[in-house]
Specification:
single chain; about 90 residues; mainly alpha; two-stranded antiparallel sheet; 2 strands; about 35% helix
Length: about 90
């Protein structure tokens, strides 16, 4: 595993010491993930994000039923900060 290449793809600057530290760790991660190749998957239907290969939706385990929920006032009553009926969160940008 080329740690420098992974760091470059992730737009990370990495020192020689970090390369030495992360190289064996990443090798162990890859080795662990490769164990999945040993699993027998012939009898399992492939799924992609809840869709079959043909794009049809898969069945869910339970019915989608509307249930009572919190009112806006109840939800905001536990918020650390609320403004004009909305949760107030710190600015990101």
């Amino acid at each position: 595993m080329d740690v420098r290449k992974v760091a470059k793809l992730a737009h990370l600057e990495i020192t020689d010491d970090e390369v030495a530290l992360y190289t064996p760790q990443m090798a162990e991660i890859v080795k662990y993930v490769e164990q999945l190749n040993e699993l027998e998957t012939v009898d399992f239907e492939p799924m992609l994000g809840g869709l079959t290969d043909e794009g049809a939706a898969t069945e869910t385990d339970r019915a989608d039923v509307v249930r009572p929920s919190f009112s806006q006032e109840e939800a905001l009553s536990e918020a650390p900060a609320a403004v004009a009926g909305h949760f107030q969160v710190p600015k990101v940008l």
